[in-house]
């Protein structure tokens, strides 16, 4: 074989290699669920984050219908969101059902064209769920985008051993009675500080969010989706009370999710934190088995509040929208929500599920056998209807909370912190 | 084959006259080989660069001219994003942070690298190879691991650094609450990772300096210190500038260290005390779905800044090498 021949061959191989690379780059795997002869899908894909408790339900559905269901899970919401964005933006690898959390659904609702209207695909459930929860599942143009799954609700998790050391009551009913309102909560925090020299509450930001939710109605946006962060009564109330909390020096200044915060559960840096139902697992994991029985669950100061919760939506580009909607309907039914709660703990939003004795009689052994089913079940019913605007989460996490933390940390005075909040709210809230 | 095709393209050369033999297949291939195969040899790089380098750049430029919603509409708005950028406080804040952290991190880093390189260059040093390898180890450690460990060291409540400071009577510092403290902590991470790397490059530069210069200087009675100032440093300038260029490019793209230090929040501190340009780009371009176009504009602004600094460096090198 001549030199030239060999070279041409090499060139051909190189060219073929480059071509293959290009082809490989273009043809990235687009997993599509096939359809068999009868038009019934072979497989439906559900995309969820954290724990929805669907493992058993999905198997039951497979048995009932003969449709295979693939349950995809992502541990963290912040890893989950980019996945959904990518599949929506490119149309590749899109699931048939996508779980949308409270913090992201408002943002995804901004482009309703991405989502199928579920109204014609499922029975009328408008009276079956908590009314405010049902409303958030609808887009501004009236499409039904999401079927309600769970809700966070809100309680106070507290360390009874630390409360005892501070000379405070430890029984959960007495603790709830300590703080009928926020002023009483602040007074309790002062007593705790006087007795122990430590902050009772972990951080001011969770309180702020709770207060805004308790006020109900419009928070950062009005019903026309105009940004009203600077004049909303709910925000004003949350802001003023938060400043009082900081001024009374009753917090440990540990930002939620920070390493100080996670370590604080074990170290006893703080004695109380605001607990939506899904937070119980996080408190348990952060505190470790050695603190079992030290935590307990009491009611929140003021009225009921909420933090978190999700919906199931069907992407418009999905191949089997009708079947996907049926599956979503099944997963959000009263009996399914009770089953999911028993498996992993997400609080039901279906009114019938909330009355189910299996739910209401549940007690949590880690939290000193607190009747969490009863506590959360009652507070869920009392949650004020709230309206979440398009960029609610961004305004809350990137404008309100940083400004409050800056005030809490002494980096900004009240006026500067408010100015920072309004400025950030304007940029974060624009859509 | 060609003869069997009746209609030839107009641009094709006329058929060769009958009396001249057409070039053989082999000769034709040889001609092509000489003319075209060099391009094929370099093609893999350019194809890869085109797909993963050039195309994303051009696409980003195109995006930056739009009001681009990641999962919604794209509206052409010309240079509006750039105009808004120039008036954006947070963009300039991120610029100041990026340059500030760069200076705080790089100046001590290069001095330390120079010092280490000079030590490693000593002929009397034992186990030189071991030391040379050892100072490079931080560089091959995963940046995320480094950032996580340092973020724990610099924790407010249970961090080792605050504990050490408490031994000498300093109150606990909330490292991510002020500019100076957060910049210092981040500079520590950067320096821990890159000092050894730069020291090795400087060492290579030092070894290229002819030994007879030192011998002559020693004969004339110049001390080690004087030799360092009068021979090593001037002869090392080109290498030094190269190291500065590399550090600049790396410094301007600083992302992981401040991000992990700030708990994974793109803001970089409650008041954006340590948000770098790369983080701001991510916040606007990826986190906020509806401002992807603006994020693209930040990316191009960052590119232009790096280009300007690279040109300045290049001019400096040319002057010093002359």
What attributes does this structure have?
heterodimer; A: alpha/beta; D-Maltodextrin-Binding Protein, domain 2; 2 domains; six-stranded mixed beta sheet; three-stranded antiparallel beta sheet; 11% strand; disordered N terminus; B: 322 residues; mainly alpha; 68% helix
Description:
- The complex is a heterodimer of chains A (431) and B (322).
- Chain A is α/β, with parallel strands linked by helices and 431 residues long.
- Chain A has 2 domains: 43-151 and 309-355, Periplasmic binding protein-like II (D-Maltodextrin-Binding Protein, domain 2, 3-Layer(aba) Sandwich); 155-305 and 378-429, Periplasmic binding protein-like II (D-Maltodextrin-Binding Protein, domain 2, 3-Layer(aba) Sandwich), CATH 3.40.190.
- In chain A, 49% of the residues lie in helices and 11% in strands.
- Chain A has helices at residues 3-26, 55-65, 77-90, 102-109, 131-136, 160-165, 172-178, 182-196, 204-215, 233-247, 259-267, 279-287, 321-331, 334-344, 351-355, 357-360, 372-381, 392-408, 414-429; strands spanning 43-49, 68-74, 97-101, 146-151, 155-159, 217-218, 272-275, 295-298, 309-313, 347-348, 386-387.
- In chain A, strands 2-1-3-9-4-10 form a 6-stranded mixed β-sheet, with helices on both faces. A 3-stranded antiparallel β-sheet of chain A has the order 7-5-8.
- The N and C termini of chain A lie far apart (67 Å).
- In chain B, helix 3 (89-120) runs parallel beside helix 7 (179-207), helix 7 packs across helix 9 and helix 11 (277-287) runs antiparallel to helix 12 (292-321).
- Chain B is flat, with a radius of gyration of 28 Å.
- Chain B is built from 12 helices and 2 strands, in the order αββααααααααααα.
- The relative contact order of chain B is 0.12.
- Chain B has one domain: Orthogonal Bundle (MetI-like fold), CATH 1.10.3720.
- Chain B has a two-stranded antiparallel ribbon with strand order 1-2.
- Chain B is an all-alpha fold and 322 residues long.
- The chains are: A alpha/beta (431), B mainly alpha (322).
- The interface between A and B is large, with 48 and 35 residues.
